[in-house]
């Protein structure tokens, strides 16, 4: 992995630590898709999401249900 990639990943982890979802979603490609490869889950954030808006909702559901 190149140094710029390492720095990007480190900055995303740091943003997660401070709750900066806007920074994280700004780093994503417009066609980003996160999929957990499950048919049904009782876990509120365990649903496929695509694009910055849906990925923001993923983080919202995570924050509402998990104590960090």
Query: Spatial order of the strands in the main sheet?
Result: 1-2
Helix content: 40-55%
Strand content: 5-15%
Question: What's the main sheet like?
Answer: 2 strands, antiparallel
Structural class: mainly alpha
Shape: globular
SS field, number of helical segments: 3
Low-confidence stretches: none
Number of strands: 2
Calculate the mean pLDDT score and round it.
88
Order of SSEs, N→C?
HHEEH
Q: What is the end-to-end distance?
A: 29 Å
What is the alpha-carbon Rg in Å?
Answer: 13 Å
List keywords for this structure.
68 residues; mainly alpha; two-stranded antiparallel ribbon; 3 helices
Descriptive account of the structure:
By secondary structure, the protein is mainly alpha-helical. It is 54% helix and 6% strand. The chain contains three helices and two strands, in the order H-H-E-E-H. The longest helix is centred in the first third of the chain and has 16 residues, at 3-18. The N and C termini lie far apart (29 Å).
Fold topology:
Layout: H1 3-18, H2 21-26, E1 33-34, E2 49-50, H3 51-65
Antiparallel strand pairs: 1-2
Please give a quick description of this structure.
The protein has 68 residues and is mainly α. The protein is built from 3 helices and 2 strands.
């Amino acid at each position: 992995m190149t140094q710029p990639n390492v720095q990007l990943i480190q900055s995303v982890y740091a943003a997660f630590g401070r709750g900066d979802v806007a920074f994280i979603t700004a780093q994503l490609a417009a066609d980003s898709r996160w999929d957990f490869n499950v048919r049904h889950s009782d876990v509120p954030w365990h649903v496929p999401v695509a694009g910055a808006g849906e990925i923001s909702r993923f983080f919202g559901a995570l924050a509402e249900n998990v104590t960090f």
